[in-house]
Write a structure and sequence with these properties.
The chain has 174 residues and is an alpha+beta fold. The protein is 16% helix and 33% strand. InterPro entries: OxRdtase_Mopterin-bd_sf.
Length: 174
């Protein structure tokens, strides 16, 4: 994780396409209950980014327009989790896992193992490393999360993503 590049200052405050962010991330830490907890730096994320999608409209839960994106390229959340050892865990254990994607500003987006591996959500939950031809855009906070299979894309969108935390949900009290 590093401070926002100087290029961030070149972004117009009234630019309707990007919002000026004070946070920036070009690496992701995978933490928690996986055997291969690790860090993915900028180069690793760029090499792994095989998913391209677009166009997409980002809206908040109320339907308010946030921005339009013509093209995004990134790494599926499931691909990162698999490299960190998700595939090696017993299925019964996986079904108890909650995945939290943390942004540098404190925002957290939650997923369950079931959503990512047993529903359409997994096909669209990705860390964006290129947006409309710009790699890790400073104006977008660098690494971004999007969940393209959600009804509204805003609530599980995050900028300046810094970590993915995997935790086992404890059994319900009896």
């Amino acid at each position: 994780m590093q401070a926002a590049p100087a290029a961030l200052d070149a972004v117009s405050a009234d630019d309707p396409y990007f919002t000026k962010h004070t946070h920036y991330s070009d690496a992701i830490d995978i933490l928690g209950d996986l055997p291969g907890a690790r860090r993915f730096d900028r180069d690793a994320l760029l090499v792994m980014s095989h998913t391209s999608v677009g166009p997409a409209t980002i809206q908040c839960f109320t339907g308010r327009h946030i921005r339009d994106v013509h093209q995004q390229r990134g790494v599926l959340l499931t691909d990162l989790l698999d490299v960190a050892g998700m595939k090696s865990l017993p299925r019964a254990q996986c079904k108890q896992l909650v995945i939290a994607v943390h942004a540098a500003d404190g925002y957290v987006c939650l997923f369950t193992w079931h959503e990512l591996y047993n529903s359409p959500v997994g096909r669209g939950a990705m860390l964006v490393v290129e947006q409309d031809g710009e790699v890790l855009p400073a104006a977008g906070g660098g690494v971004q999360l999007t969940s393209l299979e959600d009804l509204r894309l805003g609530p599980r969108s995050a900028v300046a993503v810094k970590a993915i935390e995997v935790r086992r949900w404890a059994a319900a009290p009896r």
